[in-house]
Design goal:
The chain is mainly beta and 345 residues long. Helices cover 9% and strands 65% of the residues. The strands form two sheets. Strands 11-12-13-14-15-16-17-18-19-20-21-22 form a twelve-stranded antiparallel barrel.
């Protein structure tokens, strides 16, 4: 029994001798690992209470066993082991002890860590840099029995965003076959760039390309530019309106082509609701030569994070209204979908 007690005492003594120590003016002593020192406080990680913050004015003694960097008010930076007592404060460096009693420690960081100034500069720089975000979604549905149906669809988005501008590249496609008859085959791609100026104002340029077998459309190209305004622009919600000019060119599989300039009107709303995100986009493109000839596109997506990191479920509805479609084609095309989406950056 005596051997066990002696072993525990020796182990405790060794542990305390290796741990950092902070002595407070009320006589109490804390052992642990000092993780931060500056002119206002000492932060010590203890086994009984986690990280404890002690006011620097209360600290009358301190010993730090590991080498750390210390920045001083005089402008110097030293690497060594700190020892503080009521008489003086020293840092034991590779060149010997340096007395810093007449100076003030403004910051401290580990030997293998970056200084707070470097961390702050990196954080500031990252806020000014453009960053890429990507997501890829896929949805597959099928039915067999009295009716044979298979639906496949997918989407891809790449967004390069900075503090004042954003580039959005997107593409999507759908294909549906029912009883060996093709009922949907369409693809859409777009490029959208905008930049902010003078507060909530922005200018934008965009281009979209569309292909639809059912509408007999070989290619519809829309190019637009104009002015935008953010009625609300916060990280958790934005509401933006757009007004500009657009030029549309359509070519059909019967050889017919149509071209027309017109207005480009848009409204976009995005809001975070708890952990989910709701996004709605509406665009209208009436032609100058005949305002009764127009196209309205609407899409609403609801992104729901899943338990796995970077994965989400996307539920949505889209409406495509063409006031003057080709014969035998309905004006309104409605689509509902559920996608499994993987996002990363």
């Amino acid at each position: 029994m005596k051997h066990i007690v002696l072993s525990l005492v020796l182990a405790l003594a060794v542990t305390n001798s290796r741990a950092d120590m902070v002595r407070i003016d009320d006589g109490s002593v804390m052992h642990g690992t000092v993780v931060g020192v500056d002119g206002t406080a000492v932060h010590i990680d203890t086994s009984f209470g986690g990280v404890i913050k002690v006011s620097a004015s209360q600290v009358v003694g301190m010993t730090i066993s590991k080498e750390r960097f210390y920045s001083l008010q005089s402008g110097s930076t030293l690497l060594g082991r700190l020892e503080k007592n009521p008489d003086r404060t020293t840092i034991e460096t590779s060149n010997g002890k340096v007395v810093i009693s007449g100076d003030t420690i403004t910051g401290s960081w580990g030997k293998d860590e970056e200084s707070p100034k470097v961390q702050a500069m990196k954080a500031e720089l990252s806020g000014k840099l453009r960053q890429w975000k990507f997501d890829v979604g896929i949805d597959i549905a099928g039915k067999t029995g009295n009716t044979e149906r298979i639906l496949t669809g997918g989407s891809v988005n790449a967004i390069l965003q900075g503090p004042t501008d954003k580039l959005h590249l997107s593409g999507s496609g759908n294909r549906t076959k029912e009883n060996d008859v093709l009922s949907t085959k369409e693809a859409y791609g777009s490029i959208d760039y905008e930049t902010l100026f003078k507060g909530n104002n922005s200018w934008y340029v965009r281009m979209g390309m569309e292909y639809d077998v059912i509408e007999l459309l070989d290619l519809r190209t829309t190019a637009a530019l104009g002015w935008g305004y953010y009625f609300h622009n916060q990280p958790d919600r934005h509401l933006r309106g757009r007004l500009g000019l657009q030029y549309k060119h359509e070519s059909f599989n019967d050889g017919r082509t149509e071209s027309s300039p017109g207005l480009d009107i848009g409204l976009s709303h995005k809001a975070k609701i708890g952990t989910t995100t709701l996004t709605t986009d509406v665009t209208a493109t009436p032609a100058f030569e005949d305002f009764n000839r127009y196209q309205i596109k609407h899409a609403t997506n609801w992104d729901i994070p899943l338990s796995q990191e970077n994965w989400k479920l996307q539920l949505g509805i889209s409406n495509d209204y063409n006031s003057m479609p080709v014969p035998s084609i309905k004006r309104l095309d409605i689509a509902y979908f559920a996608k499994l989406v993987m996002a990363w950056q």
